[in-house]
Every structure is written in structure tokens, then in C-alpha cells.
Amino acid sequence: MIHTSKRCLSKEDLYFFDKLPGEGHQPQKGVEKIFGPLRAERFAKSLYPVLSTPEDVFDVAIVGGGIVGLATAREILNRYPEKTVVVLEKEDHVAAHQTGHNSGVIHAGLYYESGSRMAHTCVRGAELMYKYCEENDLPAERCGKLIVACNEEEHAQVEKLYKQGTANGVKDLEIIYKDEIKKLEPNVDAYSALNSPNTGITNFWLVSQCLANEIRQSGRGDVKLSFEVLKVNQVENERHVLIKGREPGQNGPHLSVQAKNVITCGGFYSDRLSKITGGNAEKHKIVTFRGTYYQLKPEYRTIVSRNIYPVPSGGGIPVGVHFTPTVDVRRGHQMIVGPGACITFSREGYKFFDFKLKDVLDFATNKPFWEFVLQNFSLSLGELYRDLFKFAFLKSGQRIIPNLKGDMVEPSFTGVMSQVFEPGGVAAGDYILERKCLNGLALNLRNAPSPAATGALAIGEMLVDAAAEDFKWK
């Protein structure tokens, strides 16, 4: 058996790449298009064709302004030139939560059961995402990924992922060993790795801004911000619904929108949106996990050049602490390290002490979640420990890069992910659609964790296929 070395090396022993993926490229035109000096003027003009009154009835209302909701709205507008669409977003900007606080990885489709919605939409969605970024001059790069086994025992996971990815249609996969790993990534110490050259990076927050602009500028779509949906009721004697809401944290004014059909893509709140659209909110309850990220300090950020992941840790979540380069948008060129997966006490619990009693009661009464905790107790306790203590967090990264030290990293951002657990304590391994709610007028997406951002454009296709069947669109 070959064991991973735990020897800590000095800075002089480190290998530094010249640059991170994407560095040295000319600024993307798409970024300039969205954030250029005339953006306010363009924004005002883009809203003009779709300014609506409460009496207007949209063909479709999409609840949720993350990347999946926006991609679904775009797909409807492209596929049905006569339809009008409104996206209702609780926050004052789109992509405020899971979409805007993740690793930014375009996944290839390695982890997901063959034939599942996740597998299909990830593989197809990745190619659609690369194409969309290219067409809109948005930053994206196929920088590749190594999923590493630190010892011979973990190598079985590498072989399993190779077979799974190949079955899912992922191209150009290969299993490599220690010497080949060192040629690609001199600072990584591992027994073997799955090399996935088509895994990449982008900024899903920026992609979402582009999608939102595209919807607004279509002349048939609107994005209403600061609209927290509270009620969805069928209008008496009509085949459309009245959606009531308000600005979050405010008592008024009351807001309303009418639509013939509703599709919810509510992320953290998908179970509560199910309840107000007549679905079974108890069946697939949401649990949220906080993921803390660190980043390598500028002088160390090029010690790896691509995504470096451990083999999966089991239990369905998480994929483990990994190293990921970022594109030069929002946070600049970084090499981020993380995240963990610690239970939150608020569905928007970006800090450890964020607390909402209603959210705590929801997961405290979630039997499948507690079955998961009992079956994966050491994993669950370890995630809490890593969230609280930096040295414990770094220890996970040191399994891959033994010379990683505490003074090489600094705090970065925090994300929150949502997950559904099935009876028996298993993390749901596929997207869940709740169909024909509210007398056939509503469709709910109930579970959409990673790789939903990667697959967003393909998930949009999937949801519109289901909507066309349920709502009898022609």
C-alpha cells in the first residue's frame, strides 16, 4: 500500500504556476455589456416594454430568481414566442443565495446515477453553459479537475467514478497515478486520480445577470425584485392564479401578479412554496447547510492550476474540501479552498449564530434528516468541527496538499446549500418535480442542489417539457 506523505515542505519546495486559469485574458465583452457605463440607461430601456399593472395576466410566473428560475423563464420565451413570463424574486437582486455563493464549477457529470435527471442535465447543461458563456462573452474555462485518492483504499472510488462518468457520457476521462499526477500538479500528493479535462469554471452570478437582462429585453418578460410570494390562489371561475406578496421584512404595500400558470424554483424555500401552491410540503422538507470558504493568499494561489477534489466522503453530502480557481469577476482571481457542510439554524444562515425558530423547528421535526445524522454521525460531527475551527478545516485540505499551512490561507466567502432527505436517511440524489398542483396550474421543483447551476439551462428545458405536458401548451 502506498501512503500519502504528511511532510510539510517549505515555501522554497513549492511549485508555483505562472498564473491561474483565465489570467492574462482580455476583459470579456459580456462583462462590459452588463456592467458598462451605460448600464443604467440600458436597464431602464429594458424594463420599458414589460412594465405591467396588477390587472395584467402573464402566461407564466416563475417564483425564484436564481439561475434555474431565470433559465426556465428564458427557455419559455425562446420556445414559445407568443408567451409572456414574469420572474418573482424575494431579494433585491437575482442570484442572491445558492447561485451567487458557490464554487463556480462547471461539473462534467461524474457523480450522478446513470439515467437520472441530474446525470442528463449536468452533462447536457455543461455544454450548454460553455456555449452560452461563449455566445455572450462571459468568462468560462475548461481548466479540468482531478479527483484524488490519497491511498490505495480510496482508489476504488476513483474507478467507480470513472465507470459512472463514462456511463453518463462524460468525455476524455482517464485514471492517472502518482507520477502522472505530479507532472500535472507537483504539489498534490496522491495515490491516483480521475482526470476530468472537461470540468471547468465560470461565475454563475454573472451568468444570471445576463439571463435576467435577456428576459427583460425580450419585450415579453419581466423580473420583479423584492417580491416575497406569500399566497398563490386560483382565481374563482378562472383558469389562472393570483399571486400575492410583499417586500421582505415589510408589512406593506401588498403586491400582486396574475398568471395562467406557476413554476416554482424556490431553493431554500421550495417546501414552503409547495405548501402555498397546494403540494405536499411535508414529503420533501428542506435542510440547509453552510459552506465556509477560505482562499489562498496571493503569493500562494498558484500552487495548483485546476480543480482538485477528494473522492466523495459518503452519505450523499458533501463532496469534501476542495481547491478551485475562480474567474476574474466579483472576487478577482482566487484559488478558493472549501467548503464544509455544517447544518444551519436559519435557512439563510451565512453565520454560525444566525437563528430562526421556524427554520430550526422544520429540521428538528424532519425524520429523514435525523436518520441521516445517526447513520453518518462522525461525518456530521466532523463538519461541525471543521466549521468552527480553521485548523480542522485545513487538515482536510492537507490530505491532498500536505504542504498547505494556516498562514497560506485567509477567509473568503460563505455559501448555503439546500438538500432534501429521503426516508431512511438518504440525501435525495435527483431533482424532484411536484406536478399538477393547484388544480393543474402549478409545477414545483422540490430538490435542486449541486450540480443545478451547471445544469441550469438543461433543467430549464426539462421543466418546460413538464410544463408543456401539464399545462397543455401547444
From TrEMBL:
Belongs to the L2HGDH family. Keywords: FAD, Flavoprotein, Oxidoreductase. Its EC number is 1.1.99.2. It comes from the Eukaryota. This is L-2-hydroxyglutarate dehydrogenase, mitochondrial. It is an enzyme of class 1 (oxidoreductase). Residues 59-465 form the FAD dependent oxidoreductase domain. Signal peptide: none annotated.
